[in-house]
Design a protein that fits this description.
Family: Belongs to the trans-sulfuration enzymes family.
Distance between the termini: 71 Å
GO molecular function, one term: cystathionine gamma-synthase activity
Keywords: Pyridoxal phosphate, Transferase
Strand order of the largest sheet: 1-7-6-5-4-2-3
Structural class: alpha/beta
Strand content: 15-25%
CATH topology of the largest domain: Aspartate Aminotransferase, domain 2
Cofactor: pyridoxal 5'-phosphate
Protein name: homocysteine desulfhydrase
Largest sheet: 7 strands, mixed
Length: 366
């Protein structure tokens, strides 16, 4: 018999179960356990799909899984920046966007580009300074169009007073966008706090294996979903089918990866805080990203070039541990210390990770 027992509602299950089961085909004889890769650009007319720029069953499976995790409806995009651009395209001319001064460089870069071309006005603030954010929201007579939140921020790891800022944004008529890439829906669900749009660089923790580039938006409002999907259809910011399938496969182990990498990060924070070469350790108390500050750029560069397990690379959120000195990027904010090293902690054995770091820190401390 098939279909006699209804599937449990995602709302009745823990996130660790939802991440494994959401977005799967129905439990019926001869159905595949995993959503298949649908390699099709064209469909027979008369149904709901029509053309490959509008829909794909492989996208749908990933979007169902992520939507269930974030308590909303998800849309997959070709990259995190494509998702950022889709949201900012909705901002009217000369409208104000309030955003963190420390954030993903792609988001800051798009805001700067739009402001330089006279499209929008951008106010960059310390997102952890609630009073400063409230002042920026009130700085335009017409109010702000968007309050953009990252929490924790990239790479400074500041934490916003999310509930208060979301309420304040709505008070001035702003839509609230939260980049939830660092926290993931396992540690933070902004839609449940009232945010309008949640953004992810799927490339990072959600996919988790450094093998694809993808982005996503998640919303609760059906009208907003239709608007965002319409923009995706219009500009063609769609993900590849193989990338989406890989992202869904990676998503299945998110809870295990976060559990291990977060435990590793907490232990490294404890050990790094006592190391004489480290002048500051930044960690929000959750997640798998740490920032340490060394005494100047030279020492930070020496560290990132002296390890065997830790990989000097700019991305994050994967099974392997990566790190880099962020000010090596010319677009990074000057308020980020020259010696700040952002560390994305992976799932390796903690003693191996520490041994590799410790031997690289010795000459830095000397």
């Amino acid at each position: 018999m098939s279909g006699d027992t209804p599937a449990p509602s995602p709302s009745s299950l823990s996130a660790a179960t939802v991440v494994v089961h959401a977005g799967r085909p129905p439990h019926e004889p001869d159905q595949p356990l995993n959503a298949p890769i649908m390699m099709a650009s064209t469909y027979v007319a008369g149904g709901d799909l029509e053309y490959g720029r509008y829909a794909n069953p492989t996208w749908t499976a990933f979007e169902e899984a992520l939507g269930a995790l974030e308590s909303g409806r998800a849309l997959a995009f070709s990259s995190g920046l494509a998702a950022v651009s889709t949201v900012l395209d909705l901002v009217g001319r000369d409208a104000l966007v309030v955003a963190p001064r420390h954030a993903y460089l792609g988001s800051i870069g798009q805001l700067g580009d739009l402001e330089a071309r006279g499209r929008i006005k951008a106010a960059l603030v310390d997102i952890a300074d609630t009073a400063a954010v409230l002042e920026a929201l009130d700085s335009s007579p017409d109010g702000a169009a968007i309050l953009w939140i990252e929490s924790p921020t990239n790479p400074a790891l500041e934490v916003a007073d999310m509930e208060r800022l979301i309420a304040a944004g709505h008070d001035v008529g702003a839509s609230v966008v939260v980049d939830n890439t660092f926290a993931t829906p396992l540690l933070q669900r902004p839609l449940e706090l009232g945010a309008d749009i949640v953004l992810h660089s799927v490339t990072k923790f959600l996919a988790g294996h450094s093998d694809l580039v993808m982005g996503a938006l998640v919303v609760r409002d059906d009208q907003l979903y239709d608007v965002l999907k319409g923009r995706r259809d219009l500009v063609g910011a769609i993900p590849g089918t193989l990338e989406t399938w890989l992202a869904l496969r990676g998503l299945r182990t998110l809870h295990l990866r976060i559990e291990r990498s977060q435990a590793n990060a907490a232990e490294l924070v404890h050990r790094l805080s006592a190391h004489p070469a480290v002048t500051e350790v930044r960690y929000p108390g959750f997640g798998a990203v740490i920032a340490i500050v060394l005494d100047g750029a030279d020492r930070a560069d020496l560290l990132t070039h002296s390890t065997k397990l830790w990989v000097h690379a700019t991305s994050l959120g994967s099974v392997e541990s990566t790190f880099e000195r962020r000010r090596r990027w010319k677009g990074e904010a000057t308020t980020i210390p020259e010696g700040l090293v952002r560390m994305s902690v992976g799932i390796e054995d903690i003693e191996d990770l520490w041994s590799d770091l410790e031997q690289a820190l010795r000459p830095v401390a000397g």
